[in-house]
Amino acid sequence: MRGFGSALWLAGMVAASTLRTTETVGQASLFIPPLNGAPQQCGSSVTDSDLAVMISPDVFDGGAECGKNVTVSFQGRSVVLQVAGECVCITSSIEMTMAAFTTLNAPFERPVTVNWEFD
Ligand SMILES: *[C@@H]1O[C@H](CO)[C@@H](O)[C@H](O)[C@H]1NC(C)=O
């Protein structure tokens, strides 16, 4: 029975390492575009009306995730946001535009708890 247990353990490890679309529960804060319209780390400027998301530097990975879509869910609603740059935040947290908060019907005055994952 030892061999059987090891095989199950191995299968679990493989499943965990290939599952890239794991949902993350984290805090979403409002992204406030700079007044001078300066571009974000992915090269484009972001406005309140863009459906854009900023992710933490470790997840951003030097730009590897630029342009990818992230689905964010809040209390039964969801929105697809494009990665536009980095936030100053921890791994599980994101910053979203006003358009994202509006679409999710979420209050933007304080961080809200959301689920998010790469598409
Ligand atoms: C991101 O989502 C938009 C809108 O749904 C879609 O048009 C676009 O092709 C997606 N981009 C990627 C890289 O999947």
UniProtKB/TrEMBL annotation:
Gene3D superfamilies (alphabetical): RlpA-like domain
UniProt keyword annotations, A-Z: Signal
Protein name (database record): Barwin-like endoglucanase
Organism of origin: Mycena sanguinolenta
N-terminal signal peptide: 1-16
Taxonomic classification: Eukaryota, Fungi, Dikarya, Basidiomycota, Agaricomycotina
InterPro entries in the cross-refs: RlpA-like_sf
Taxonomy, superkingdom: Eukaryota
